[in-house]
Automatic annotation (TrEMBL):
<dbReference type="InterPro" id="IPR002081">
    <property type="entry name" value="Cryptochrome/DNA_photolyase_1"/>
</dbReference>
<dbReference type="Pfam" id="PF03441">
    <property type="entry name" value="FAD_binding_7"/>
</dbReference>
<protein>
    <submittedName>
        <fullName>Deoxyribodipyrimidine photo-lyase</fullName>
        <ecNumber>4.1.99.3</ecNumber>
    </submittedName>
</protein>
<feature type="binding site">
    <location>
        <position position="42"/>
    </location>
    <ligand>
        <name>FAD</name>
    </ligand>
</feature>
<dbReference type="GO" id="GO:0005737">
    <property type="term" value="C:cytoplasm"/>
</dbReference>
<keyword id="KW-0285">Flavoprotein</keyword>
<keyword id="KW-0456">Lyase</keyword>
<dbReference type="GO" id="GO:0003677">
    <property type="term" value="F:DNA binding"/>
</dbReference>
<dbReference type="GO" id="GO:0003904">
    <property type="term" value="F:deoxyribodipyrimidine photo-lyase activity"/>
</dbReference>
<dbReference type="GO" id="GO:0071949">
    <property type="term" value="F:FAD binding"/>
</dbReference>
<dbReference type="InterPro" id="IPR005101">
    <property type="entry name" value="Cryptochr/Photolyase_FAD-bd"/>
</dbReference>
<feature type="binding site">
    <location>
        <begin position="195"/>
        <end position="197"/>
    </location>
    <ligand>
        <name>FAD</name>
    </ligand>
</feature>
<dbReference type="InterPro" id="IPR036134">
    <property type="entry name" value="Crypto/Photolyase_FAD-like_sf"/>
</dbReference>
<keyword id="KW-0274">FAD</keyword>
<dbReference type="GO" id="GO:0043153">
    <property type="term" value="P:entrainment of circadian clock by photoperiod"/>
</dbReference>
<feature type="binding site">
    <location>
        <position position="91"/>
    </location>
    <ligand>
        <name>FAD</name>
    </ligand>
</feature>
<feature type="binding site">
    <location>
        <begin position="94"/>
        <end position="101"/>
    </location>
    <ligand>
        <name>FAD</name>
    </ligand>
</feature>
Length: 417
C-alpha cells in the first residue's frame, strides 16, 4: 500500500521540485531563475498552491533569505534590475513583509516571551488532558480526516516547506476547526520549516487568530481552497464557518528601536550564526578567525530544519576562509572562549540577532564572555536599521515608505515610482 510519506519521498526526487540546498550559490541560482517572473506573472499567480512539484507561482526564496545566504536587499536589487518598481510592486511588498514582522516584534519583544509562556502552558495542558492530546497528535500526524490539512501536514514534514497560502489555511483550520492552541501550531511550524523565522511565524499565527490585528481573523473557506489549489482540494462541510477572534490579557508595550552598531576594524573573531550567513557584505575588516555555531538537532527541531541551518552556517564559514566544518554544539561559551584565545583577541564580532532563540543565546554568551574579559559586538545591517523604524503599527505604514527605503538603500530612485 502506498502511503502519503511514500508519495512525498517520490516527489522530492521530481525534477520540478525546488531543491533547497543550503548554499549561497543555490540561493542565487533560484533568484536568477525566478527574477523574470516577479512582475505580472507573480501578481496574478502568487496565491495558487499547485504543490511541491510546481513552485513557479512563488519565489520559494524564503529558506535562503531567512538565513541571509541571499539578502532582502539583494533580492530587491535583482528584481529592479529587470522590472520597473510599479511592475514588480506586489513582489517587492512581499519581500518587505519579512522586514515588517522582524521590526515589529523587535519593538514588541514581550510578544515572543508571551508566545513561549503560552506554549509551555499548552504543552502542560496536553499532559493533563488525554482527549486534547489525542486531537493534537492527530493534527501533527496528519490524521484529522480533513484531506487538505493532512496533505499539508505531510508536505511540511517531508519537504520542510509550504506555500504561504497553505500556511494560512493550515493555521486557520488548526485554530478555528480543530480548536487547538495557536502556540502549539506555531511551534509545529518552527519545528519543521526550513525557513522558520521567529518573528514572521509568530506574528502570522497571531494574525490568523485575530491577535496581531485585534479582532481581524483569517477564516479558511472551502471555495477559496478549491480555487487556489485548482480543484485539488475542496473541504466542503469539514471546516469551521465562523472565526471568533482569540483574546489575550497581555499588553505588549512598544520598545523604541535603537540600532546596534559596534564596528571593529581589526583583530576580531568572526562569529557566524544562523541569523546571517553573509555578514561579509556589510561588516568591514579582516577577522583573525571565523567560527560558526549552530545548535544540534533537538526535540523541537526537525532533521531537515537542523540540516539546512548547519549547512547555511558551514557555507558562510567556508566562504570566509574559516574552519572546514561549523562547530555543532550547545556550549557556545567554551567554543568562543577557546577560539578567541587561539586567535589572540578579546574582541568577538557577529551580525545582530533579532528577538528569538539566537538573540537569547547571544545575550547569555555576552554576559559570560564579559567575565572572561572578552567583548561581544553585534552589528546591524543597514537594511534593518532603515526598515525597522517604520514597523511600529500595521504594514500599511511601512508600505507607504517603500519608495523612500529603496532610495535610501540605493536600490532604486524614489522618483521612479
Amino acid at each position: 500500500m502506498t502511503t502519503t510519506e511514500d508519495v512525498y519521498a517520490d516527489l522530492l526526487g521530481h525534477p520540478e521540485t525546488v531543491a533547497f540546498e543550503p548554499t549561497r550559490q543555490a540561493g542565487l541560482a533560484r533568484l536568477d531563475d525566478f527574477a523574470s517572473r516577479t512582475s505580472a506573472h507573480y501578481t496574478a499567480s502568487r496565491n495558487y498552491d499547485l504543490g511541491p512539484t510546481e513552485r513557479s507561482t512563488v519565489s520559494a526564496l524564503s529558506p535562503w533569505i531567512r538565513h541571509r545566504l541571499i539578502t532582502e536587499e539583494e533580492v530587491l536589487a535583482h528584481t529592479l534590475a529587470r522590472h520597473s518598481p510599479n511592475a514588480a510592486m506586489k513582489f517587492i511588498q512581499e519581500v518587505f513583509w519579512r522586514g515588517y514582522f522582524k521590526g515589529w516584534m523587535q519593538q514588541h519583544p514581550s510578544v515572543w516571551t508571551g508566545y513561549q509562556s503560552g506554549l509551555r502552558t499548552a504543552q502542560n495542558g496536553l499532559e493533563r488532558n488525554v482527549h486534547h492530546n489525542t486531537d493534537y497528535q492527530s493534527a501533527i500526524g496528519g490524521r484529522t480526516g480533513i484531506t487538505c490539512f493532512d496533505h499539508w501536514c505531510h508536505e511540511l514534514k517531508e519537504t520542510g516547506y509550504l506555500h504561504n497560502h497553505a500556511r494560512m489555511w493550515f493555521a486557520s483550520i488548526w485554530i478555528f476547526t480543530l480548536r487547538l492552541p495557536w502556540e502549539l501550531g506555531a511551534h509545529f511550524f518552527l519545528t519543521h520549516l526550513i525557513d522558520g523565522d521567529p518573528a514572521s511565524n509568530t506574528l502570522s499565527w497571531r494574525w490568523v487568530g485575530g491577535l496581531h490585528t485585534k479582532g481581524k481573523t483569517y477564516l479558511a473557506r472551502p471555495s477559496n481552497i478549491a480555487k487556489y489549489t485548482r480543484g485539488t482540494f475542496e473541504p466542503i462541510g469539514q471546516l469551521a464557518q465562523t472565526a471568533e477572534p482569540l483574546i489575550e490579557n497581555d499588553i505588549h508595550p512598544f520598545v523604541p528601536f535603537v540600532p546596534s552598531q559596534s564596528p571593529i576594524q581589526k583583530d576580531f573573531l568572526f562569529l557566524i550564526t544562523e541569523e546571517d550567513c553573509q555578514p561579509e557584505t556589510f561588516i568591514s575588516g579582516t577577522p583573525k578567525d571565523v567560527v560558526g555555531l549552530v545548535s544540534p538537532r533537538e526535540a523541537d527541531q526537525s532533521a531537515k530544519s537542523a540540516t539546512f541551518k548547519k549547512g547555511a552556517v558551514a557555507d558562510a564559514v567556508l566562504r570566509l576562509g574559516g574552519q572546514e566544518n561549523a562547530t555543532v554544539t550547545n556550549d557556545w561559551t567554551s567554543t568562543v572562549i577557546t577560539a578567541a584565545e587561539q586567535a589572540g583577541t578579546s574582541q568577538v564580532l557577529t551580525a545582530f540577532a533579532p528577538v528569538g532563540p539566537s538573540a537569547t543565546k547571544l545575550a547569555n554568551l555576552q554576559n559570560v564572555l564579559a567575565q572572561e574579559g572578552i567583548t561581544l559586538h553585534q552589528q546591524q545591517r543597514p537594511y534593518d536599521t532603515i526598515t525597522w523604524p517604520h514597523a511600529t503599527k500595521g504594514f500599511f505604514k511601512l508600505k507607504k515608505m517603500i519608495p523612500s527605503i529603496l532610495s535610501d538603500l540605493g536600490v532604486s530612485d524614489a522618483q521612479t515610482f
